[in-house]
Give the backbone structure.
Amino acid sequence: MSTVVGRAVERLDERRRRTQVYWVTVASFAVAIAYVDGFWLTSMQGAVGAIERNEEPLGRWLRDSTLMVPLFFLGVSAAVLLARRWFGHRRSWVVKVGATALLVTVIGSAIGIAETAASSAYDYRLQSRDLTSVHQFHQTIADAKPGATAPTSGCTGICAEKQLTLASHVKALKLATGLLLVSNLVVVLWVMMFRGDRLWRSARADDEARVVEARSTVEAVLV
Amino acid sequence: MNEPKTDRIKIPRRTLLKIGAVGTAAVAVGSASSIVVPELRRKGLDSANGLFDATSIALASKIYDETFPTSPLILSPFQDPLNVPKAARPVPYADYTSWASPPGPGYGQQNSYGNEQHQKWKGYASDPDPIIYHIKQEVSTHSFTTSQVLPIDSAGRPAKSFDSARKTYPAGTVRTLPASTIYGFNSGTGATFPGPMINAEYGKPVIVRFDNRLAENPMNLDVQDFGAPDRSSLIHLHNAHTAPESDGNPHYSMTRGPQHHGFRTGDWVDQMYLNWPAGSDDLEKQSFFWFHDHRMDHTGSNVYKGMVGLYPIYDPKNGLDMGDETQGYRLPGVRTNNDDGSFDVEYDIPLALFDCRLDDGVTNHLDIHDSMGEFPLAHNPRTHPEWWGKTFYKHFPNHGFVGDIFTVNGTAYPVLEVKRRKYRFRFLDCSVSRIYELKLMSSTQGPKAAKDLALIGSELQGQYRIPDGQQCMKFLQIASDGGLIPNPFWRDSFELWPAKRREFIVDFTKYQDGTPTTKGDVIYLTNVMKMPDGRMWSNSSRSLPDPNYKVPMMKIVIGDDAPDNSVIPTRLRDLPPVPGNWKDLMNNRLIFEVERGTAGGEIEWLINGQQFNPFSVTTSLRNPSGNALPASQPKGSFNLWEIRNGGGGWVHPFHLHMEEHRTMMRNGKVVNGTDKGHPDDVSKEDLVALDPGESTIVYRGFRDFVGPYVAHCHNLAHEDHAMMFGWEIT
């Protein structure tokens, strides 16, 4: 019995050690990525989004980004924990930090891209509905006279308009993917710098390190 | 040996990183405030939402295909004479009375459908019967220049070219341009661009029978891939005081008359132009209209394809403004009466500005209308070498459509020899999207090809520059859209937005410093507003002037002396009074916000969040009284309308059909004539010039007629993509 309890305690202790990340850093990543990705999402919506969802962009950005923070928090947490597991033992600081930055960027961007894709899909749905309702009075092929014989088959008219709309969203999503990856990498690196590369706690040494850092900071400021 | 002792302070990596982060942030913030913020301010986007709008614009530019050809370089500019239009001739009585369906006031006589009647047959009771003009819309050709051209690419380098048989000519081959296919107006002397000029007079009604013959195409011309695909048309006399059945607007045409986007091929309509001021009020008289196509969804392409005509209107009452400089206001003009009732006026010249692009044969034609199957014979998307040198059009551009060849009265870079005397110039911008800012400049070195100045890309627009150009003369403004203004004033330059008209007197006897001109002196009418795309200007006198952007559009050569009985006026026509209690209407005003949005496909430009619905009147945004009212006004009423630019960084020339308006407030301030950006706010106008983010409140009347009208952006790319709304008088 005591062995079982002992193993459980060990497992809990191991898990505690494993999850000893700097939550302030994780939260900083999540907030920064959420608002940066929200900026691109809002701007992209302004470029190709459905008119029904048109609203004052600043307010929309603040609202949507804030709502997305918990999701990004989960994603970033997972990224940092994974990084700790995979790269925490590496001696090279560059590898450790670089790999972590990449992992946080990739997972954060994946969430951002999914968010953008979902938004585009919703926009497309709304736009397809609008196209159907308005096509009646923009259609001019039916009574086309000389030189403009309507094709008898293929995707024309409303089908073509829907295709064009879809193509715009696909193009926008591709563009957004690149923008999110680059801007997230920049923001992750910056947060890392700002947090002084504090990602996770290395056992016991942490308190000592904090004292040394505080002393050094004071010295640097005084000098 | 001991090393020297040094007091080295070791800064931990973590501290360095933090300092680096703060430093980077400081640099980023500094750069943003020194580069981004001024740029946003210049574009009118320095608001809380501006950064988002600017980013959306940039992203949209990346997402939507925006490839335009570079027109071949006109090698001998300023050689072709300016086309000074002569007055169109009316149809003799004996001729039109023998028509199968002659014009008449009865029911069924207004159009070929037999389902309409003129609301009024005369303005004043004493008016004679209308003068009849017959204008056929025909497929024809037009040449913008007789000069040889050098095909160039967007870097200004010689490029290969083609002919109608798709034969390729190597780069550097000098070519003759083929004529472009037009849908032109023909009043009896052949279809031309611009179309005929009707010299009208108040008190003498005119009926123009617009006769759609676009199906005939006797020369079997290739009509390419723009222009209404069913070749229907709808002609609007901008901005005459006309009843809806003669107004040529799609809110009317979709619900009455043809019940279609326009009048189909083979159809005709008699447009009644009463030449009668709103409310029979002499102060409402105007001076310069133009007529153009207004076919729903294809106005831009039909106008670009040539459906433009001119309509100066004179006021013979007391000889005030009848084209005779010896009487009335004594504005420049020497009138010659023709034996058929028409007349010409010398020294009084309309100048219609228009920009175009010519196909380079290697630019892909790709437009939503191709995918919609409207031009199946073009087999787009693909290149069209066989159309090399002919007009190129993109129906659904991202911001608007601007050309790189500037024309005046249909001729690229013309020359006008003037007498040493005063002239009256009636300027019209009939371009799809381009705004001009014009100056009169002299240049000792003369025009240089932009490509020879190592300019590339959009800097090639206009093709020529006068690097040493200096302003040498001023314009005396005498009229705006709404006619003669009370107090003429001198201007160094003026902006001309799409569809706007401005009239000026230019005295060619002397320069602005008082030095007399001499025969042979050369002056250039010069555009100094750089507008690389249809969104707005990037540089102009009132916003980041570019001293190197001086594009000569027309060469003016001083000729011989000539008698001049005109005078520089100090006082012209008063404005109609606005009631002192106009602010009482503020709370219950109608509010319309123009904005960019996407309803999918090509529905992109919206008003109050809605696309144009030709079957109903739109609804105002909620006003301060809490009402969201329908755009429906009782006959004989007056009201305030607020027109807002919903932002996004575009300018919008917003046109209100029917009566001229007065701008009472701009951006929350009562108009008092001190706004240098909009000096014409103090006159009557039919087109509100909206800078990014601006709002205006206009006072307007709804008199004399009932029925459906429209209001819309006159950037025709915006209008064709739903930035229009229906309203009515009941």
